[in-house]
Amino acid sequence: MFDFLNNFDYVKWILLPGMIFFARICDVSIGTIRIMFVARGQKRIAPVLGFFEVLIWITVLGTIMKNLDNPLSYIAYAGGFATGNYIGIKIEERIAFGKVLLRIITRKSADGLIKVLSDNNFGVTHIPAEGSRGPVSVIYSVVERKNVAKAITIIKDFNPKAFYSIEDVKLVSEGVFQGKSNSIFQSDNFWKRK
Questions:
Q1: Of the candidates 95, 129, 152, which is a domain's last residue?
Q2: Burial, 24: exposed, middle or buried (Cβ in 10 Å; 0-12, 13-18, 19+)?
């Protein structure tokens, strides 16, 4: 009965699949973050991340090719891929890198929301518009990703039924951003330049 334990190859059936699993988590997480940097136009960081992502991937693939008779390696590979996607997304959320465009549409008067957002140092652009059910107010604000939750809380406090959407912004030249009091739009110099 205990001969099985004596003949059991721990490296092949436990250590190797574990290493494949954790290596896949690393390379897929790096890949997720690399894609985030590519989408935001970060030309210097993305290639470095891509190098390490592919280096890990080739190493893992080579290890699996040497152990084709080990089905646990395949399971570890797939499990590491799935887990790496999840962890990469969580890391990306934590980094909260870049800016997003927050588009708010409300049928209620937008004056109060504009004031609260402005008082909290969010830049706003307001456009009166016509919706399918009558007049609406459209508010645009470019927000640092780390401040999105605060902006959404303000929106929901002001008008829980307001429609809003969020999309990534690749490049922003100037504007009013929370925590940056030296913005060009907040100084008199902006208006003198015009």
A1: 95
A2: buried
Residues 90 and 124 in one domain: no
Q: Among residues 95, 128, 160, which one ends one of the domains?
A: 95
pLDDT in tens, 142-190: 998 889 999 999 999 988 999 999 998 877 666 666 655 444 344 344 3
Determine the structural domain holding residue 155 and report its residue range. 99-193
Which residues have C-beta within 8 Å of that of residue 97, sequence separation ≥ 6? 36, 37, 40, 145
pLDDT digits (tens, 9 = 90+) for 32-51: 999 988 887 788 999 999 99
Residue 119: CATH number of its domain: 3.30.70.120
How many domains does the structure of the chain reveal? 2
Partners of 131 in the β-ladder: 134
Note whether 87 and 25 are within 8 A (CB). yes
Rounded alpha-carbon distances, angstroms, from residue 55 to 50, 74, 75, 88, 111: 8, 19, 21, 17, 54
Record the pTM: 0.66
Q: CA angle, 80 as apex, 79 and 86 as ends, to 5°?
A: 95
Which residues are bridge partners to 127 per DSSP?
A: 138
DSSP state of 177: B
Cα-Cα-Cα-Cα torsion 39, 40, 41, 46, nearest 10 degrees, comes to: -70
Provide the residue type at 51 as one letter: F
